[in-house]
Predict the structure of Protein kinase C.
Amino acid sequence: MESHTQHVLKVPVDKVQHDLEEISIQVQRDLQDLVAELQFSLEEKTEQCQPKLEEENEQVQHQLDETTTWIETEMEKMVSHILYDLNVPADQFEHDLEDILIQIQRDLESSLEEKAEHIKFNLDESAAEVQPELEENAALIQSELGIKPTTPHCELLEQTKFHHFISLENFVLHKVLGKGSFGKDNLCFVMEYINGGDLFFHIEDKGRFDLVSTQFYAAEMTCGLQFLHRHGVIYRDLKLENVMLDRDGHIKIVDFGLSKDNMLGDKRALSFCGSEHYIAPEIFQGQHYFSPVDWWAFGVVIFEMLTGESPFYGADRDELCMSVCMDIPQYPNWINQESNDLLVKLLEKDPNHRLGTVGNIREHPFFKSIDWTKLEKRELEPPFKPKMVDYNDFRYFDKEFLKETPKMSQGDSSYIGPMDQSVFADFSFINSKLFSTY
C-alpha cells in the first residue's frame, strides 16, 4: 500500500495539467459540435414547420375576418330593427346624426371663439392702459434727442389707437380692385354680394335641372373655366356649392381658395386637394396633374345637374377612390344621346384624352343651341331668374348660415409684416411704415 502511494505521488504535476487541458479542449469541441447539430436540427424543423404555421395563421386571420364581417352584419341588422321599430328612415337617421355632430362642432367652435374674444378684449384693455404711458415716454425721448415727430408718425399713432367696439364709424372706405374696401383698423376686402343662391341649394329644391337649364349653366361654366385655363389658373374646386346665381340668373364661380396659378406650358401640380366627390382619378392616384382635373369635376357637376345624383359612391374615402378610379358611371337611359356622349368624354379616366383638354368642347352637340358670342356678352336669357324683393332677401340661403354671428378675423402681424409689400404699391391705401421697409 505504501509503495503504491509512493508510485502515484511520483507522477509529474505538469503531465496531469497537460492531460486535463487536452480533456477540457476535447469536451469543448464535443459541446460545440453538439450545439451545432442541435442548431441545424432546430433550423431544419423550423423550416419544416414554417409553411404549417403560415397556413394556420391564414386560417386564423380568415376566421377573424369572417367574425368581424358577421359582427358588422349583425350590428347593421340591429340598427335596422331599431330604426324600423322607431319608424325612422335610415337616411333620416344618418342625416340627423350628421346634424348633431355638426351642431356639436359649431358649439365647440363658438365656445372657443368666445374665449378668444374675451382674451383679446382683456389684452386690448391692458394695451390701452399702457398706450398713453408709451406715447409719453416716446415724446420725452424724442424731446431729449431733439427729434420732432413727423406727420407720417403721427398718422401711424392715430391709426394704431385701440378700439374696443367696431362700428361703421371706425371705417374709412377706399375703392380698390373694383369692389373692395379697406377699414381704418382692419383690412377688409368686400366682395360682390350674390344672393341668388348656389346650384346645390337649387338642386335640393328641384331635385334636378331640365336639359335647357343644364345646357345654359354648363355653357357659362365652360366660359369661366376656359378663361382661367388661358391665364394659367387651375380651379381645383368646381362643385355645385361653388357655382352661384346672381340677381339676373347668370352663374358666378366663387371660392378660389384651392386654385393654383402660373400653370402654363409643362407646369404640373401634385397637391392632394379638392372636394372628394369631384376629385379626378389622377389626383387620387398621386400623379402630376393640370387643367384636365377641372374638366373631370365639370363632368361630375353636369351629371349631378341632369340626374340629381353623384356618378360615384363610397362609404369612405378609400371606397370613393376605388369607385372614381375603377367604376364606369351608370348613365340613366332617359338622358339624351348628346348628354350621354358629353359625360362619357368628360369622365374619361385618362386626362390626356379628356374632352376640354382635347377637342373643342364648345362644338360638342350638347351645346348646339348655345350662341357663344351672345352668351359671353350676357345677352342670352337665363332659364331661371331668382325672385327677390330687395337686396336683403335671403330666401336662397340655407338658414343655418343666417344663424351664424359675423365676427372680425384676427390678422397675424408676424405673418403680414415680412411679406413683400411692393405688391400693394398701386393700392389706394397702404401702411407707410410697412411699405417703407421695402
